[in-house]
Every structure is written in C-alpha cells, then in structure tokens.
Amino acid sequence: MKILVCISHVPDTTSKINFTNGDSEFDTNGVQYVINPNDEFGLTRAIWFQEKQGATVTVVNVGGPETEPTLRKALAIGANEAIRVNATPTDGFFVAKQLADVIKNGEYDLVIAGKESLDYNGGMVPGMISGVLGYNFINSCTHLTIDGTAVTAIREIDGGKETVSTSLPLIIGGQKGLVEEKDLRIPNMRGIMTARSKALTIVEPIEAAVNTKAVKFEKPAPRSAVQLISSDNLDELIDLLHNEAKVI
After folding, report:
1. 169: cis peptide before it, omega within 30°?
2. How far is the C-alpha of 126 from the C-alpha of 171, rounded, in Å?
C-alpha cells in the first residue's frame, strides 16, 4: 500500500502573529513553524500502517525552501520519502490542484490530509482533491482500518459518530482520534540522522488558477477588562447583562 500524507507548514500556536503591507500579508519574521497538528495525527497513523502492514509512506508539501525543515521532521518521524511542490500556497484550490497532480503521478492508494490547517482553517483541500481525482473521500475521520482494498472508518458528525465502509483509493481528512496525542512521535537521534539521507524530491508546480486572494487581515479585538459586581447588587448585574452584554 502506498500512502501519501499531506503536510502543512504552519505557525506554532505560541508564535506572536503580525501582518505587513497594509495588513494584507502575514509577517513571518520570528515565527516558529511546525507540522500542522491534524496532519501529524495522520502521519502517525500512516507510520502505524507502515509498521503493521508494510505500507510505504511519502509526505508532500506545497511551499518554498523554508518548508523543508518541516518535511525533514516528518522524515525523522518515520516517513520513507518527501516531495516538495516548489510553489507558494496561494489558496486552497491551487494547493489541491498541485497535490492532485502528485497523487495521480504517484498512484497512491491512500491519501491522508488534515481536515483543516491551523493557519487558515479553510478545511477545503482534501475535498477538492477528491473532486479533482474522483477518489472516495471521508472527512473528519477519527478511526481507520484497511484490509486489502476494503476500508472501515469512523468520522465525527453533528451529535455523534458515523461508521462507514468504502474502498481504496481513498482520501481522508483526518483529525485527533486517528491517534491520540500520547501516541504522537518525537524524532529521536537515529531518526534525525536517517532523515538526512532520505529522498526529498522537489517538483515544479503545474499551471492552476488562483481564484482568491487575501485583501486584509485583522487581529481579534482585545478582551475588555473584567467588571466585578457586588453580590448585593443583582439589579445592576441584570441591567448590564441585558443592556450592555445583551445576553438576556
């Protein structure tokens, strides 16, 4: 079984976010990048298939040279090889077209992507890839077992979970539940050294339309100061909740 894991290169949640060029571009100065958490759950599950079922695992990213340390970390975790599509990820459709081309050329059986990335939370790329290629697709996937070409998966739905059966080739939008946080792997020294010799192939992007662009970014408004009301003054509390907070 050939597995492709899509890796997003996203800012660490502890990074301080700023914008430049009239708040139209993200300021990357001083920002630490990591593997997108939903993608890391998927990568860990792919490594399980590698160890238990002899699968080969390739990781792929759409981005410039600055994303290569993130791909090398994925290799250190256990992926067999990496691919970097040498392009700026301008929007979800553009990224989906690039990944679909990699999938088609590599003839992958299973494609694991995070259901959404931590930076823009668009949640559109896995479904778009499925639409381009005509592959089966399961989103919000929290459990995955494969027997030959038969697949059983569990996905989150409103108010509960749904068990579905399908077949390869398949694209999933994974999340926590594919593995738990305690199962995530930290690269050890042997993995880091081995990653240096693993193949990282750079491919040029195919032509694809860019249909959207960021006009302006805004930070959330700062939280207002806490206003304390005496327990003896319930009328004032009710008045503030009704007229200022407008929650009653």
Report:
1. yes
2. 7
| pTM exceeding the 0.70 threshold for the entire prediction | yes
**CB-CB contact of 8 with 37 (8 Å):** no
What are the residues whose beta carbons fall under 8 Å from the beta carbon of 184, sequence distance 6 or more? 40, 41, 44
Q: Which DSSP letter does residue 14 get?
A: T
Q: Is the dihedral of CA 46, 51, 54, 60 positive or negative?
A: positive
Number of neighbouring beta carbons within 10 Å of residue 18: 14
Which residue reads 């390869």 in tokens?
168
* H or E stretch covering 62: strand 56-63
Nearest to 64 by CA among 224, 217, 192, 204: 204
Cα dihedral angle (220, 214, 134, 107), rounded to 10 degrees?
Answer: -100
Per-residue model confidence as pLDDT tens digits over 17-72 = 899 999 988 898 889 999 999 999 999 999 999 999 999 999 999 999 999 999 99
